[in-house]
Amino acid sequence: MRKEKFRPQFHFTPQANWMNDPNGMVYYEGEYHLFYQYHPQSTVWGPMHWGHAVSTDLIHWNHLPIALYPDSLGYIFSGSAVVDWKNTSGLGTRENPPLVAIYTYHNIEGEKAGRNDYQSQALAFSLDKGRTWSKYEKNPVLPNPGIRDFRDPKVFWYNETNKWVMILAVQNRVQIYSSSNLKEWSFESEFGVDRGAHGGVWECPDLFPLEVEGSTIKKWVMLVSINPGGPNGGSATQYFIGDFDGKSFHSDVDTTKWLDWGMDNYAGVTWSDIPEEDGRRLLIGWMSNWQYAQEVPTESWRSAMTLPRELKLVQEKDDIIIVSNPIKEFEVLKEQHQKDSETLLSGEVPIDIKELDLKSCELNFVFEPQEASQNGHTTAYGILLRNDKEEVLKLGYNMLSKKFFMDRTNVYKAFSNSHYLSLVTGDYDIQNQVKMKIIIDAASIELFVDDGKFVMTNTVFPQEPFNQLSLFSSLGSVKILEAEFYNIKSIRAK
Ligand code: FRU
């Protein structure tokens, strides 16, 4: 598996066949669970199951048997999982609290028959650390009220009211429900019809509290994936920051904020039940885009997840934003440190990469564009990756448009899905210096700018691995204050 073309070396992938959204992420008894939308018979989407893997460090994963199979009520669509610590559902005991998965049934016959009520919410539970699952006999627990898009429940415990809260994607908005036992749900409120981006249907929401870094201010964060309608077309995830009182959510500002400006981070939600002493908010997303996910040129499997990321809130001028960064556990995979000294650069300068493996690496830079030079102002700067097939990937910042860009135009032209945007861009205003962390793994590039204030995740399918690295600066010059590279160890068996 390690040798397969495009097989990521340190990102989660199914061993074989089709995967989309991450589902049911929950931490219990020392294990992080990751379920995912899975079609075990094909490399394209089809009857959905929940695939399953566990990890003790969020980096190395053990693949487990499929957790949930479709049944007479429908395919198993996306959803969440919680530890029912107080056994409110009665599905376990206090001594052995049940793990409860809350997912959407998608009834394909209902859909084909042109009905509107083919999606409903249901429960399954496990009493053996997620190894085997039983479906609740009275499913569904939240029947469909006659709305076509009614799915992707994310459930959490809200202490102040002693209730479970469910946030659900409903066409062009989210709905919030509450329950004392996970089995009976009452409608509380709606959010979003007049907020945020509306270029497509809303999917896979999440809602959680976070403190603003360096303060005691607690805000509530709502994530909402949208497809299509992302900033570069297709699938993407927007977010809102505001307040929640157990019943309804109000966002502070009306502008749309994107969690990730790239084309390949979708349906990301966060882990439940991370112990308080850890206290992190951890997210993983599906590293693909519905515009081309089913056509990407991998052979035995399709799709990977993003690196797990820690989300934090920071005050940025008069706004509060999410910053996302690779989890600290990722550090264990870093090796072979190469550090280059400060340089002033103009034009294109090849880097002597020595032992650096550009298939699996992390590149860190601090750039400082120079005010003016004899040639005029710098217009763009960044990195170029090349291979022996003369493919070139360009990643950098354009100072005129104030946009980061990743240009895939000259890589794998044979993969000609017209939606596979060659130039992916995202707005970010750089005043002076900028830090870039670039994580490359076989067929993906994750860019984290200024400690996660701007993030861009993109797939890329070079016909041969990149083996040359250069830095570039167009017109004027740029100073490289720091350049530090690491190889990343594979998590796959040899
Ligand atoms: C998002 C999504 C979800 C749905 C699942 C089906 O990618 O469309 O809304 O539950 O995928 O596989």
Short note summarizing the structure:
46% of the residues are buried.
Task: Annotate the secondary structure layout.
Layout: E1 17-28, E2 31-39, E3 49-55, E4 62-68, E5 75-83, E6 99-106, H1 108-112, E7 119-126, E8 134-135, E9 150-158, E10 163-170, E11 173-179, E12 186-191, E13 201-211, E14 218-227, E15 236-244, E16 249-251, E17 257-258, E18 266-270, E19 281-286, E20 301-302, E21 309-316, E22 319-326, E23 334-340, E24 343-350, E25 360-369, E26 378-386, E27 392-398, E28 403-410, E29 423-427, E30 434-441, E31 444-449, E32 454-459, E33 468-488
Parallel strand pairs: 1-20
Antiparallel strand pairs: 1-2, 2-3, 3-4, 5-6, 6-7, 7-8, 9-10, 10-11, 11-12, 13-14, 14-15, 15-16, 15-17, 18-19, 19-21, 21-22, 23-33, 24-33, 25-30, 25-33, 26-27, 26-33, 27-28, 28-29, 30-31, 31-32
The structure holds beta-D-fructofuranose (FRU).
Describe the structure.
The chain folds into two domains: 17-326, Tachylectin-2, Chain A (5 Propeller); 332-488, Exo-inulinase, domain 1 (Jelly Rolls), CATH 2.60.120. The protein has one helix spanning 108-112, and strands at residues 17-28, 31-39, 49-55, 62-68, 75-83, 99-106, 119-126, 134-135, 150-158, 163-170, 173-179, 186-191, 201-211, 218-227, 236-244, 249-251, 257-258, 266-270, 281-286, 301-302, 309-316, 319-326, 334-340, 343-350, 360-369, 378-386, 392-398, 403-410, 423-427, 434-441, 444-449, 454-459, 468-488. The chain has one helix and 33 strands. The radius of gyration is 23 Å and the shape is globular. The protein is an all-beta fold and 494 residues long. Strands 23, 24, 25, 26, 27, 28, 29, 30, 31, 32 and 33 form an eleven-stranded antiparallel β-sheet that branches. A five-stranded mixed β-sheet has the order 4-3-2-1-20, with no helix packed on it. The structure holds beta-D-fructofuranose. The site of beta-D-fructofuranose (FRU) has 12 residues, from β1, β5, β9 and β13.
